[in-house]
Write a structure and sequence with these properties.
Layout: H1 8-36, H2 42-53, H3 63-69, H4 71-80, H5 87-93, H6 101-112, H7 119-137, H8 143-161, H9 163-168
Protein name: Negative regulation of cellular pH reduction
Keywords: Apoptosis
Amino acid sequence: MSDSTELYPIIFDVVNSYTHHKVLQRRFSSILHKAFRGEAICPSQCAALIVKFLGEDLTSQHQPIKEIFSTVAADRIIVTHAELFSDTAYEEKIHVSLLRLPSIVNEMGDVIFKEKRHVGTVGAFLAFGATFAAYCEQKEGLGVLAMKKIVVSVSEYLDHHVGSWLKTNGGVVS
């Protein structure tokens, strides 16, 4: 994107890494669920997932800003408000199509950041983006392309609407 700030690569790195973590977590959960029903061969499926996401972790140069995104806070928000991040919530409240993904992300960002910008709202938006991407990634007609579009949309939104707050806070939670 031509009007992105110098923070965009760092933001993208964090959003992409956390989203891949949530996709992997969702897939692993699905594999285990099938295994309990005797339908899955866990070792080969797990190995394939590990190979797919190997090396997609945060680069060391972007590690300092990770604190501001508080993925631990995002995980807590997902657990505490599981009903908001569930498949049922996404199916009932959001009409998903590849074309609408950027506007869905922007609308949700506007709602989350309407009144405040702080670690909790950044964590909530990160949680939304990652769980929504993981949901879309497994839907027929959406898949990996949807996940990638969501990662870019969340990264762009954070860069344009929260970037100055990130700079002010130095990328480190105190």
